[in-house]
Amino acid sequence: MKRKFTFQHDNNTKHTSKYTKAWLHQKKINVLEWPSQCPDRNPTELLWGDLKRAVHRRCPCNLTSLERFCKEQWANIAMSRCAMIIDS
């Protein structure tokens, strides 16, 4: 890859195995130091939780309705909610 980037993952054991660490090191991929399973430090995880609860309340009955509900609910997440999560 030509652009420099930093990879973030949740420190799940499959991401922190010796093999995975060696592969990331061999590929010269910069990995962000991050506490394991810490949604409070990852705003995206909090938004995924909001989306999951909102879609679950709508009870999708098939894949088509699930996709539609996800898109609708994602579009309905208020910018103020995003700002609040980031500020916290």
From TrEMBL:
GO molecular function, a single term: nucleic acid binding
Gene3D superfamilies reported for this sequence: Ribonuclease H-like superfamily/Ribonuclease H
Tc1-like transposase DDE domain ranges (all copies): 10-58
Domain of life: Eukaryota
Protein name, UniProt field: Tc1-like transposase DDE domain-containing protein
